[in-house]
Amino acid sequence: MPLNQQNQMELLSDILNNHQTDCCGSVAECEQVERLVKSLMVHGNVNSQLQSALEEIYKYSQEGIHTQHLEEHIQSHQDNLKNWVEDMNTYF
User: Fold this and answer.
1) What residues does each domain of the chain span?
2) Which domain of life does the protein's organism represent (predicted)?
3) Shortest CA distance to 58 belongs to which of 80, 29, 83, 36?
């Protein structure tokens, strides 16, 4: 069963919130974030503010996938993670 836009936003928010609160994550989670963002950007009707956040989140996921030090990457994005989750929570 495919996820609808609401489910995708909730899952994305949950993963990013976990990165923010736990200060750790996995490459698999970054890959999942990448897939969710791609789907939302291609198939979702998102406003320009959320579109901008999704582009930043996509870049974050790409960097996370390719970094040798994922925990440091997550730690360096703590403020962004908090803001992204807050932004997404206003839309669902």
Assistant:
1) 5-89
2) Bacteria
3) 36
